[in-house]
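Q: What does the predicted 3D structure of Protein kinase domain-containing protein look like?
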Amino acid sequence: MSDLEGGGAGVGIGGGSGIGEFMHDAPSPYMTPYQNYYSEQKTSPNSLHSRKTPSAQNLPRPHAQQASLSPGKRPSSPNYHRPSSPLHHQQHQQHQTITFPSLKLSSLIGGGGFGQVWSATYHGTPVAVKILTAQVNLPTPALNEFQSEVMMLSHLRHPNICLFMGANFEAPNRCIVTECVSRGSLWDCLRTKLEPPWKECDNGWVGGWPGGSVAEGTWPFGLVKRVIEGGGRGMAYLHQADPPVLHRDLKSANLLLDDGYNVKICDFGLARLKAYTNSHTGNTGTTQWMAPEVLMNQRYGEKADVYSFGVIIWEVLTRECPFEGMSQIQVAVKVLNEKGRVEVPRWCKTGCPKLAALVDKCLEHSPNLRPSFAQILDAVRHL
């Protein structure tokens, strides 16, 4: 696949939430013009399935479905909407439509550029509901973007991809419904104590790591491999699709973990079906995880996701935030001008050099030098 050709020079910093320091909050993505237009800057930056935050209680509850009706008009059936375009008509024919009254919302659990995310039940099944904000008068490009995301999600079926269950196309409650993943995001899990049968390494137990030396508090070797393999399999599936699907905002906040700490990749709000041209432009993503070519607003392909995945592996090894304490501009300058990268911990370089080398390969400045996800999986199998 082609990854880089042409494109503008310089640091592409824009959209999103302005310049700040990266501390302990889950990261928020840079936004497309559509997402930036409809986002509220004070929306919680937590991940799709992160725990409820105090500020979540102050956000408004979605409208009842009847609010979208004009006075005197009543629906003839639960799916009364008549699409106004062939694409919308095709969406209703091809994708499961979930009526909003069939969703029993319980609590707000997150938010971002796309809108609000609620925990809910659908005919007794726990689900996550991602609701667009300020959507009553959606312009056509924004509506098309929503429809495209639904179309893409409806075709994805893989154990390591968060399951799409359906969508509601009715304003003012257009939403996407997915499975609810129990443990929340990898970002959150890295900041909480492991639950049995897993436990963190300590001075008397190295957790199966080769080399016999590991930093205290590190996740055991088997669990680290499980996370890398699960994320790698999910991303390999996306990249092998026809056309390939790019995530474009891959980070620990967008990897969910179930009861068994198995990975489910989520939040394709910034993903796109890869066009029949070879690559994309536009610096969507989150700075600490963004590949150099994305920061520079160059065309990019699947290898940009590989770079982001390398940062995620580093997170799992260190349980730290990448480039902590640095502003977005500082991170971009370090990566672009100094060719800086997160440093693999010394204990990993000496005790598990193959894994350390894999992280370094994923973080190569040139996308052509990075492995594919198929190659990542092969390398992990031989650790």
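A (community wiki): The structure tokens above were generated from the sequence. The chain has a mean pLDDT of 76. The two ends are 27 Å apart (CA to CA).
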